[in-house]
Design goal:
Layout (H helix, E strand, L loop, with lengths): L15 E10 L3 H12 L4 E5 L13 H8 L7 E3 L3 E3 L22 H8 L12 H10 L3 E2 L2 H18 L4 E2 L1 E2 L26 H7 L3 E4 L1 E9 L2 E10 L5 E14 L2 H12 L13 E11 L14 E5 L4 E5 L4 H12 L9 E8 L6 E4 L5 E4 L4 H20 L4 E2 L12 H5 L14 E6 L25 E3 L14 H18 L1
Parallel strand pairs: 1-2, 1-11, 2-8, 3-17, 11-20
Antiparallel strand pairs: 3-4, 5-7, 6-13, 9-10, 10-11, 12-15, 12-18, 12-19, 13-14, 14-15, 16-17
Helix pairs in contact: 1-6, 1-11, 4-11, 5-9
């Protein structure tokens, strides 16, 4: 099934050769923000995207269709180590903003203060505030409304308030949200202000060009300077149909904390520090469910609309929903015998700011080889998060609770649910997933310790810049999309100022 949108690049086998002022690799949060700034500064900008351009009406709310078309590696990308941990990432014009829940958190002040110690000027108090203001206005960021949140979010809110814990509705860039609960498969109504509908639209109005179906494979250098990129042109079904080359005065890598180090490794560049692909940080997550004596219909309403931040522990609790078939695929044994009451099921996830560190390298087949072994401290914080969620659901009046551990069954009391959630829970008993890769081309003033300078230029190669989540020195602790946009904006303004 081909549901690809408009394509700029040729698909008839003829080579594509372009010359521009700025070439940006990637059209997700970072690439879109950088392209918007540079196009507004009258630079000739070309953005390259491996995936396709989509219209909201082309999104099909089925996991199989979305995974094949909108996710990196068909949503089969995993981190390997002590266990296999899924690490999804978006693919297409808009990147992961196509398939996220639209959550918009600013970087916490405590994190920015800590990051300032890494020599990052943009982390200084107040430095990014005006940029955040602009991005939030353009993306129509606002707290989730209760009527769109609906029962899955509101039942969790009830439990949080019963415990006397501070929680709040999540702010999202979804001004037209109808609560259809399929954010992860692409918003079919166009109600989410993903960057393809906002920042990239601004960039195109100012003259930027987006070329889709362009798999960038190598950064080009001549005489000690970056001069652009080259790669393979892809058909809508990802067959190779030709080659392309883009020559540029300045090149910006914004392919994510997986794609950017992969490209640098493949190009054999910018690794004097030995840090390319190292210092991978993610937000490991887990979650659980509960059954109530009332209709929840968790597939109706905002996928993630209410949260609690356990700041001292580095844990963020966020409600979570998806479609019924997705739940059954993830937790079939747990739901066996409970399908008849699935309409009374509530669901919540939790993520942590990890202290584990991993690596990203290319593999022989072109896929990312991601090594990551969750340390005991992080595993124990995931168990702590499950204990908290169980307490919230019990306080909300749940009829049955589920610990969230593999092999356990729903139980009637909080005591029974908490009993297996001890500090010694083995990793293989946890349903662990991960999101938001960060840190693999970290930014800093010391060329022996960092890949990228504090202004976004790579230490090793003039003309080459980075503007994505790979710049972060450690895990952010909250959903990073608007912080990636803010930092990419900050970097792009310096590129524009340098001329």
């Amino acid at each position: 099934m081909s549901i690809a949108g408009h394509e700029k690049a040729p698909r008839d086998g003829s080579p594509l050769r372009l010359v521009t002022d700025v070439c940006i690799v990637g059209t997700g949060a970072g690439g879109a923000a950088a392209g918007r700034v540079l196009a507004a500064a009258n630079a000739k900008v070309i953005l390259l995207e491996e995936g396709r351009r989509w219209r909201p009406t082309q999104f099909v709310p089925k996991p199989s269709v979305a995974y094949r078309n909108l996710y990196q590696e068909g949503n089969t990308r995993v981190m390997s180590g002590k266990s296999y941990i899924p690490l999804p990432g978006g693919r297409g014009v808009g990147g992961s903003t196509l398939v996220n829940s639209g959550i918009c958190f600013r970087a916490p002040e405590r994190v920015r203060r800590r990051w300032q110690s890494f020599g990052l000027d943009w982390a200084a108090p107040g430095e990014l505030d005006s940029i955040y203001d602009d991005i939030e206005k353009r993306l129509f960021v606002a707290p989730t409304a209760p009527d769109i949140a609906r029962a899955n979010n509101l039942i969790f809110k009830k439990g949080v308030e019963a415990l006397g814990v501070k929680g709040d509705f999540i702010s999202r860039n979804a001004p037209g949200c109808q609560g259809c609960g399929v954010c992860q498969f692409g918003c079919p109504t166009g109600g989410k202000a993903s960057v393809d509908l906002t920042l990239l639209r601004d960039a195109e109005e100012d003259g930027a060009d987006i070329y889709t179906g362009c798999r960038v494979e190598r950064v080009l250098q001549e005489h000690g300077r970056c001069v652009g990129v080259e790669g393979t042109l892809l058909s809508p079904d990802d067959r190779s149909v030709g080659r392309f080359e883009v020559r540029a005065e300045k090149t910006v890598l914004a392919g994510s904390a997986v794609g950017t180090p992969m490209l640098l490794w493949q190009s054999g560049l910018c690794n004097r520090s030995g840090q390319v692909g190292r210092n991978l940080h993610v937000h490991p997550g887990t979650g659980t469910i509960a059954f109530f004596d009332q209709d929840i219909r968790l597939w109706s309403g905002v996928t993630q609309g209410y949260y609690v931040e356990m700041e001292d522990e580095g844990i963020t609790i966020e409600t979570f929903t998806s479609t019924p078939e997705t739940y059954y695929a993830l937790a079939g044994p747990t739901l066996a015998g409970n399908l008849a009451k699935m309409n009374r099921m509530a669901s919540c996830g939790a993520m942590i700011a990890d202290r584990t560190s991993g690596t990203v390298r290319p593999s022989g087949d072109g896929r990312a080889n991601i090594e990551y072994s969750l340390i005991d401290e992080d595993r124990e914080r995931l168990v702590q998060a499950l204990r908290f969620v169980c307490k919230v659901y019990a306080a909300a009046g749940a009829a049955e609770l589920y610990s969230g551990l593999i092999g356990e069954r729903p139980v009637k009391t909080l005591e029974e649910a908490l009993r297996p959630l001890t500090a010694g829970v083995p990793l293989h008993a946890l349903n662990v997933y991960a999101s938001h890769p960060m840190g693999t081309c970290r930014m800093g003033p010391d060329p022996d310790e960092a890949v990228v300078r504090p202004d976004g230029r790579t230490h090793d190669l003039p003309g080459l810049h980075v503007a994505d989540g790979s710049l972060f020195p450690e895990a952010l602790g909250v959903n990073p999309q608007i912080t990636i946009m803010a930092v990419a904006t900050w970097v792009a303004r310096r590129i524009a100022k340098a001329g």
